[in-house]
């Protein structure tokens, strides 16, 4: 979470500098927009994996809570299995995306697009591992019922 907070602070500082440079100095830095976009991509994907690990991802509790008690455990297990499969799919398709875009340059930055997208298979792998850990341990979904 600290890395995400630092990335968000860096993104806001970069965008603030870009706006200041554009409207006050009349010369917007070319690297600012792509750097902020890169930080946002990384924050989003790593935040998703962190949400699964910490149990603060978006979920619907009412469905599980309305089931008979004997079905709640299998329902949570099925949900964790589906999240693990989604993570595995994100991992494999993310690798394909990284390989396909490795030779494409990020405009204004000394990176390839594939390097920028490395976070996708990384987060997919983390999502799968975290969900499988919850599945093996039989962990219940954290959180509370209702929107209040």
From TrEMBL:
Q: Which UniProt keywords apply?
A: Cell inner membrane, Cell membrane, Membrane, Transmembrane, Transmembrane helix, Transport
Q: Where are the transmembrane segments?
A: 37-56, 77-95, 115-132
Kindly list the GO molecular function terms attached to this UniProt entry.
Answer: transmembrane transporter activity
Say where the protein is mainly found. membrane
Q: Which GO terms describe its cellular component?
A: plasma membrane
The UniProt record lists the Tripartite ATP-independent periplasmic transporters DctQ component domain at: 11-138
Might you name a Gene Ontology BP term for this protein?
A: C4-dicarboxylate transport
Q: Subcellular localization, per the record?
A: Cell inner membrane
Query: How does this protein sit in the membrane?
Result: Multi-pass membrane protein
Q: Which one Pfam family would you cite for this protein?
A: DctQ
Q: Which family does it belong to?
A: Belongs to the TRAP transporter small permease family.
Instruction: Provide the function of this protein.
Output: Part of the tripartite ATP-independent periplasmic (TRAP) transport system.
Fill in the subunit field for this protein: The complex comprises the extracytoplasmic solute receptor protein and the two transmembrane proteins.
Protein name, entry field: TRAP transporter small permease protein
Q: Which organism is it from?
A: Aurantiacibacter luteus
């Amino acid at each position: 979470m600290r890395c995400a907070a630092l990335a968000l602070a860096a993104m806001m500082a970069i965008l603030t500098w870009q706006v200041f440079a554009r409207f006050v100095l009349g010369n917007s830095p070319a690297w600012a927009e792509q750097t902020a976009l890169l930080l946002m991509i990384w924050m989003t994907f790593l935040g998703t994996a962190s949400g699964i690990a910490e149990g603060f991802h978006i979920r619907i509790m009412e469905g599980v809570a309305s089931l008979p008690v004997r079905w709640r455990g299998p329902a949570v297990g099925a949900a964790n299995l589906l999240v693990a499969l989604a993570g595995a799919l994100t991992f494999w398709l993310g690798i394909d995306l990284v390989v396909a875009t490795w030779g494409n340059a990020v405009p204004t930055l000394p990176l390839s697009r594939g390097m920028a997208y490395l976070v996708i298979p990384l987060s997919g792998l983390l999502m799968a591992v975290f969900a499988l850990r919850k599945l093996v341990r039989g962990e219940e979904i954290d959180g509370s019922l209702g929107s209040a």
